[in-house]
C-alpha cells in the first residue's frame, strides 16, 4: 500500500512501510495519523452469542488503549431509539418551561435522563445489551459496576459550546477505571452537534486540568488545548449512526458543541466503573415498577453489577433530569487513596 493510500504522508520512507505492515496485520485499525476512531462491527453470530469474537476483541482493545474511544456499530435497533427520541422531544418542551434551568457548562446542553418507565420505553438492547456488557468487561476487567444512567441534550440552534473537559475530574490511576457508553437517539454528526472528542487524551491526568470549581468541575487548560489543536490529533466531531454506541474512556477529553440543526440531539449515557474503583455512585430507578427486577435479571451472569437507588415514582420523575452528581449519582469525583 502506498503511503498516500495509508493516509501517512510526510513521514520518512521507512515509517509508512511499517504502518502498511501494521495495517495488513489489523485492517480495521485506521493509522493513528488519520485521527479517526476505530469502528467495531459485530457479526450476526456475535450478536446472537452476546460476545465479540477474538478478531473484534483485538480491534476493540487496540482502539480503546490507543485512542480512548471506539464506535461499536449497529448494536441497537434504531426503531427503539426512535421511540425514546420521541419521548425526549416532549420531555425537552417540559424542561424548557422550568425556571432556572441548568445548562451544562453554560452551553445549550441539558442533562436529561432517559425514561425507564412505562415498559414501552425500556429496551433490552439499550439497557441490557450483552455485547455492551462484554465490551465493558473486556476493558475494565471482570465484575464491573454499573452506576450511572443519564443523558445529554444538545438543544437546536446552539451558539455556545462547552470547554474541552474530561469527566474524570479527580486524580486517577493511569489505567482504565470508568467508561461511558453514549447512545445517540438520532444519527449524529457535526451537522447536529455530535460530541467533540480528542483521541488519545485519556493518557492525561490532572496536570492538564484547571483547579476544581465550586462543584468540583474542571476543564482542560487553554495551554494543553492549544498545544493539542496544533498536533496531528486535534478534537473533531465523529459521525455516529443511530444504533451505534460511542464507547469512551471517562478520562478522554471531549466537549458538548453547538447543535446547529433544527432538531434536538439527544444522547443516553450509561456509566460503568471497574470493580476495584471505590466510587460511591448509584443510579436512580422508580420503585415498584419492575425496573429493578429487570435490571437484576438482565445483568445476572454477565459480570455486571447494577448499583441502584429505588425511589417512589414521583420522586424519581422529579430527579430523572437532575444535573448534579453531588448526591447519590456522584460518580468518581471524590477520588481515593488506598
Ligand atoms: O452532549 C454532549 O455532546 C456532551 C456533553 C458533555 O460533555 C457534558 O455536559 O459534560
From TrEMBL:
<dbReference type="InterPro" id="IPR051961">
    <property type="entry name" value="Fungal_Metabolite_Diox"/>
</dbReference>
<feature type="region of interest" description="Disordered">
    <location>
        <begin position="1"/>
        <end position="47"/>
    </location>
</feature>
<dbReference type="InterPro" id="IPR008775">
    <property type="entry name" value="Phytyl_CoA_dOase-like"/>
</dbReference>
<dbReference type="Pfam" id="PF05721">
    <property type="entry name" value="PhyH"/>
</dbReference>
<feature type="compositionally biased region" description="Polar residues">
    <location>
        <begin position="1"/>
        <end position="20"/>
    </location>
</feature>
<protein>
    <recommendedName>
        <fullName>Phytanoyl-CoA dioxygenase</fullName>
    </recommendedName>
</protein>
